[in-house]
Amino acid sequence: MKFLLLLTLIVSQLSLSQNNSNYYELISNGSEYSMIEIKNAFETANLCGLFLQNNRNTIVLNDGSIIRIFSASELANSGLTVESDCISVEMTSKVSWSISSGVLLRRIEGAISPDNKINIIN
For residue 18, with 0-12 CB atoms within 10 Å meaning exposed, 13-18 middle and 19 or more buried, which class applies? Predict the structure, then answer.
């Protein structure tokens, strides 16, 4: 009985520990942000809208760090789901990315506004 309870707790923790790290990979670290800063910013970011259906989305931070968001197809093949309204088409506007106070920010056409900030997930 104790074994069954322990097994149930372990499985529950594993399912609750699924986080954003399953959805992206850090390809290379740049000159300004540490790997921990990048990881923390991406772990707390709402990645909705950054997923492409069949291609990985490459994000290059202003310090040269490169992060790739896995495609919705890759994630589905791994057993992870992405809501259909979070899947975008290829982005054509000029976007630059940065991290400020632990928050991932995107700048479109040179202007930062609250609408362009990727919000922290609580």
Answer: exposed
Would the pTM count as exceeding 0.70? Answer: yes
Asked whether residue 64 is assigned to any structural domain, the reply reads: yes
Output the six-digit token pair for 24: 């992206």
| HEC per residue, 59-75 | EEECCCCEEEECCHHHH
- The answer to whether position 11 is within a domain reads no
Q: From CA 9, how far away is CA 3, in angstroms rounded?
A: 10
Number of alpha carbons in the 13 Å side-chain half-sphere of residue 30: 16
The span from the first CA to the last CA of the chain, in angstroms, equals 35
pLDDT tens per residue across span 58-90: 999 999 999 999 999 999 999 998 999 999 887
Q: Are 20 and 47 in contact (CB under 8 A)?
A: yes
Q: Domain range spanning residue 60?
A: 20-116
Return the ∠ at Cα 62 (arms to 72 and 37), rounded to 5°. Answer: 75
The number of folded domains in the chain is 1
